[in-house]
Backbone:
């Protein structure tokens, strides 16, 4: 945790490499101190087919999914910092947006949590 999923128009990858874009998001997330660096996951999905408003050429949207427990100010600051960094990296982009959503601890599961040896229910068990 957290997961940052980047959706973008295919042409964005002609302006910056996938690694440059993913690194920008990763580095901002790490710099906030809200997450352990080893827990941050970033992935990118380019779209060949999409429709935008008149005169708009391209888009990039970051969906941030984090474990509950951060306050609204922290989530807003994270969203804003990612937006600022990506705007610096891709100043000519038509649509650039970020939203941060929370995983509910009570309904979250992963491989570590179902391990029978994990008697403390540590979601990082064995990692």
Residues:
């Amino acid at each position: 945790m957290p997961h940052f999923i980047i959706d973008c128009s295919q042409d964005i990858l002609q302006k910056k490499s996938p690694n440059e874009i993913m690194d920008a998001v990763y580095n901002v997330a790490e710099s906030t101190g809200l997450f352990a660096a080893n827990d941050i996951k970033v992935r990118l999905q380019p779209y060949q087919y999409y429709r935008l408003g008149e005169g708009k050429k391209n888009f990039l949207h970051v969906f941030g999914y984090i474990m509950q427990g951060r306050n609204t100010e922290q989530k807003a600051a994270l969203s804003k910092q990612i937006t600022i960094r990506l705007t610096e990296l891709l100043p000519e982009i038509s649509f650039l947006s970020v939203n941060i959503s929370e995983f509910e601890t009570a309904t979250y599961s992963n491989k570590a949590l179902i391990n029978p040896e994990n008697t403390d229910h540590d979601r990082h068990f064995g990692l």
Summary: The chain has a mean pLDDT of 93. The two ends are 12 Å apart (CA to CA).
